[in-house]
Amino acid sequence: MARMKNMTKPIQLPLMPLRGMILFPHTTMDFDVGRALSIKAVEKAMEADQRIFIITQKNIDVETPALSDLNPVGTIAKIKQVLHVTGSMLRVLVEGEQRAQLQKLEVSDEAWEAVVKPINAIETQQITPEMAATVRVAQEYFKEFAESSQRISPEALRTIREVINPDELTDVIAGNAISRLDEKETLLNILNPSDRLEALSISLMKEARFAGLERMVQVRIRMQMDKNQKEYYLREQMRVIQEELGEDEDEDLENYRKSLDKMPLNQEAREKAEKEIDRLSRMQPGTPETTVSENYLDWLFDLPWEKYTKDNLNLNRARRVLDSEHYGMEQVKERIVDYLAVLGLRQRADKGAAMKGPVLCFVGPPGVGKTSIVKAVAKSMGRKFVQMSLGGVRDESEIFGHRRTYIGAMPGHIINGLKRADSMNPVFLFDEIDKMGNDYRGDPASAMLEVLDSEQNMHFRDHYLDVPMDLSRVMFVTTANTRGSIPAPLLDRMEIIEVPSYTEEEKLQIAKRHLMKKQLIENGLDPKNVKVTLDALRFIIEGYTREAGVRTLSRMLAKLARKAAVTMLDDDVEKVSINRKTARTYLGAEQFLRDKPKPEPLVGIVNGLAYTEVGGEMLQVECMVMPGSGKLTLTGSLGDVMKESAQAALSWVRAHSKEYNLIEDFHTKQDIHIHVPESAVPKDGPSAGVTMATALLSAITQRKVRADLAMTGEITLGGRVLPIGGVKEKMLAAYRANIKKLVLPKDNQKDVSELPQYIRDHFDIEYVDAITQVATLALVEE
Q1: Could you say which of 163, 450, 519, 702 is the most buried, measured as most Cβ atoms within 10 Å of its Cβ?
Q2: Computed from CA positions of residues 673, 674, 679, 685, in that sequence, does the dihedral angle turn out positive or negative?
Q3: Residue 114: strand, helix, or coil
Q4: Poorest-confidence range of 181-190, 220-229, 524-533, 713-722?
Q5: 195-215: b or e for each residue (b if 16 or more CB lie within 10 Å)?
Q6: Residue 302 · residue 259 · CB < 8 Å
């Protein structure tokens, strides 16, 4: 007998009792959940690490089981998928991970919880020669049982042959071959793998012999009957059995065959369906394999084979739809119209043309309308819209599906999306593509390469269906907040379209034209009865929002609408007018005040500009010099690139010390401290190079820096100023702070033209290509 590892310490998990079903480790299962406490347990598990304790309920008639009503041993499982079926019913897909003993049951109004003691599986080095021999015996009995019963698929048989671990072998065979619930309970309750393996071998031997005797009896009976008697006997026997079970197998098979004749499947899919229907006709009704085959055929026939919606590629209509639902974003709209124009010309030459060319990827801060503009594209084209969020996706099976060898396997989200769209050419949005992860279960980003490549997705294969699907006419679109976290091979297949931050004037127009009306309607108000002045809207934008998009603005307007509804009911009035004073009364004190520059020049303090995921920000870089030994201290949660910029700035100042009348060894007798405020916020990037160099030069020379000036740019050791990104967002931050003079890299002059004219007229912009120019502009003359 093999020596087992020590049991781990007891843990507390949400508990779900199953009626009439048993889940083994190393297997997957899907089932419907209807009891309120079970639904709460699923929700509690999803809020934690998705693990839940699955156990069998002995008495299926008990609605709220006690400890004595539950099997002593269950399975710790991980929830793979949760679907809302109808009403409050959930369909849950779980994967068994580990046996555990039930020690304590806690029932509350919220959910079932249990204290369980996990049982570790046997490791490979612990397998004795005796156990290895028993494994082979069990595999041979399973093969004999499969040949005798003809109820086991060849795929499952091949899988069993490759398993050498006793724990995994007994669990997989018990889940696939053993049909009696009491025998499954016995096998689950045996904790010692050697004893469990022997019990499984005995059960398989009995089943194999019984199946063999059954076949011998059938052969003798067939030999004694002529053809007509045999057919009459079998049909009558099948009819009686189906009447007793309330089933009509012939009708189901006939329906599948009719669906196969009507469905325009490709050749491989048709052959696969015919083979599956033939297998189903030979199976005994009610077996697990029957359910697997029926689910497979249902999925195959529910897909919209050769079903396409007609594209409406009228460019004027596309412009009208985009303009009616989105204000501004002219460059983004122009690129979308270009895309539709090319597609229209290609379809004019070939109606079945594939979606060639790069996949569009909209990159921008949260709340700027990336997802909604993709919906507008689908609306303008007359196509169905499907959305899949990739945030947190770590398992490639969510893209490609599970293989059918797993119990409860399902197709991936690609096939699921086509089924929901009921079309083979929808607009398919992969949202938050920059948020994908990867771990031991696979790399979904690599799996996406095939999906997004127009040369490969013509023959896309889902692991569950295992037939080629043509995705070449699906319009795939992606969104992301930043392009830096998108893997390079995936980025190479996409065309990046920057969705910039909104200016305050754009936010004002969006609130006036779209958001205010939408929030009034959603809160039960007639837009004709509530008047909000432009001054009030501008006050809300300036005092209560600090974002690149309009999500916070939408929430503030929703609060405004609710307060207006209260006023109408309390004062019994039909109309409400909201001005700046009323808005402050409804929303409370302002949450944000405009960043104002210092009233007078200071030494060592420079206004810098930064670009974050949520838009542009103005930050002040502070530098202080004190007697010491030449130590450079950098604080403020700075990243490696920003620290390197500070080192480069110090080296440049040392190299040009004579030009600024500094003693040659000043860096050995003084300590330098550079700090960027708001230390809790991580900061990185090269664009603060000129800011830190100016602050350093100011602190060492004791010359003050202009307070009405802000700057951004990367520096080199030679003193050159290099271009940076996010110019629009940085200039908007400077505009909000009422900065009048800007210092920008000379190569960024082309980016300034993207801003509205009234914002450009606000600034006096100096374009530089050397740090000496920056110092001349920023430092006050002595």
Answers
A1: 519
A2: negative
A3: strand
A4: 220-229
A5: ebbbbbbebbbebbeebeeee
A6: no
Concatenated DSSP letters for 488-502?
HHHHHTEEEEE-PPP
- Rounded Cα gap, residues 177 and 159, in angstroms: 13
Do residues 409 and 464 lie in contact, with contact meaning Cβ atoms separated by under 8 Å? Answer: yes
Question: What is the structure's pLDDT at 234?
Answer: 72
Please give the average per-residue pLDDT across 23-38, as a whole number: 89
Q: How far is CA 760 from CA 260, 738, 756, in A?
A: 65, 13, 7
Q: Do 429 and 478 contact (CB within 8 A), yes or no?
A: yes
Q: Which residues are part of the catalytic machinery?
A: 687, 730
Mind giving me the DSSP string for 551-562?
HHHHHHHHHHHH
Residue whose token pair is 């609408």: 561
**CA 610 → CA 31, 181, 715, 730, distances in Å?**
51, 65, 15, 6
Query: What is the rounded CA–CA span in Å between residue 726 and residue 646?
Result: 21
Q: Sheet containing 709-711: which strands, arranged edge to edge?
A: 632-635, 670-675, 615-627, 605-612, 709-711, 741-745, 764-768
CA angle 667, 672, 678 (to 5 degrees): 160
CA-based nearest residue to 518, from 543, 483, 555, 546: 555
Q: Given this model, what pLDDT does residue 694 score?
A: 94
Model pLDDT for residues 328-343, shown as the tens digit of each residue: 888 888 988 998 888 8
The amino acid that residue 493 corresponds to is R
C-alpha angle 595-597-603 in degrees, rounded to nearest 5 = 135
Residue pair 748/729 in contact by the 8 Å Cβ criterion: no
Which among 282, 24, 297, 28 is positioned nearest to 151, based on CA atoms?
A: 282
Please tell me the pTM assigned to this model: 0.59
DSSP-derived secondary structure letter, 683: B
CA–CA separation, 499 vs 735, rounded Å? 19
E strand intervals along 541-645: 576-578, 602-603, 605-612, 615-627, 632-635
Write out the DSSP string of 224-286: HS-HHHHHHHHHHHHHHHHHHHT--HHHHHHHHHHHHHHS---HHHHHHHHHHHHHHHHSPTT
Distance, CA of 424 to CA of 697 (rounded, Å): 63
CA torsion sign for 324, 326, 330, 335 is negative
Q: Which two tokens stand for residue 407?
A: 């119990």
Query: Distance between CA atoms of 648 and 717, rounded to whole angstroms?
Result: 6
Interatomic CA distance for residues 201 and 572, integer angstroms: 81
Q: Are 432 and 391 in contact (CB under 8 A)?
A: yes
Side-chain half-sphere of 463: how many Cα atoms within 13 Å?
16
Does 2 have pLDDT greater than 60? no
Q: Which residues, 6+ apart, have CB-to-CB distance to 524 below 8 Å?
A: 565
Closest among 410, 147, 466, 93 to 276, alpha carbons compared: 466
**Residue 396 to residues 242, 343, 393, 486: CA-CA distances in angstroms?**
41, 31, 8, 16
Q: Is 720 exposed, middle or buried (0-12, 13-18, 19+ CB in 10 A)?
A: middle
Write out the DSSP string of 118-171: EEPPPPGGG--HHHHHHHHHHHHHHHHHHHHH--S-HHHHHHHHH---HHHHHH
Rg of the chain taking only CA atoms, in angstroms: 35
Specify whether the CB–CB gap between 176 and 156 falls below 8 A: yes
Q: 344, 363, 368: which is closest to 355 by C-alpha?
A: 344
The token pair at 109 is 């109004």
Cα–Cα distances (Å) from 710 to 120, 730, 743, in that order, read 62, 10, 6
